Recover the amino acids of this structure.
């Protein structure tokens, strides 16, 4: 059971921003099926009002973090994605909120470590190297970079006459 602090007025603390949303999401992830708001309320315990749970679920729905569907007279709720998918959604929202997407992506990519950079390259190359990243040789990495238009043989941008878009034989 996810515990929510409660007690007399002297012992009650104010939750941090997003803390209750996190607890509701954790409860939904712990469920083995879509659940109704009453189930979430019971799971959180500590005298949390049903209307509070409904408010949090509705806010999460507006953010695209959860989905709902009608089942009988009520709705059942579930996370829109797993934890990785939700993190990706948050990253996408940050990116969508910026005017200069190229600058944001460039800054992000330059802060990645070598392992993350290799994973990104494999993903951009179509995922061929994702599951066997340790088996990837330097030629495959160079080909992936060429297809992504990042480098050419001289270390340039690979933008000469669209050749970067052509897969090498």
């Amino acid at each position: 059971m996810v515990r929510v602090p409660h007690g007399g007025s002297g012992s009650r603390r104010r939750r941090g921003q997003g803390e209750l949303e996190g607890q509701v999401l954790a409860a939904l992830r712990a469920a083995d099926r879509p659940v109704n708001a009453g189930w979430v309320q019971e799971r959180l315990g500590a005298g949390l009002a049903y209307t509070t749970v409904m408010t949090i679920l509705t806010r999460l729905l507006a953010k695209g973090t959860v989905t709902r569907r009608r089942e009988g007279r009520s709705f059942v709720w579930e996370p829109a994605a797993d934890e990785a998918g939700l993190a990706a959604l948050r990253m996408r929202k940050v990116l969508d909120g910026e005017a200069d997407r190229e600058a944001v992506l460039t800054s992000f990519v330059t802060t990645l470590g070598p392992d993350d950079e290799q994973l990104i390259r494999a993903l951009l190359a179509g995922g061929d190297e994702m599951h066997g990243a340790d088996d990837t040789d330097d030629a495959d990495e160079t080909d992936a970079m060429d297809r992504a238009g990042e480098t050419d043989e001289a270390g340039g941008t690979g933008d000469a006459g669209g050749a970067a878009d052509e897969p090498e034989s």
Summary: The first strand starts at residue 66 and ends at 71. Residues 112-165 form one domain.
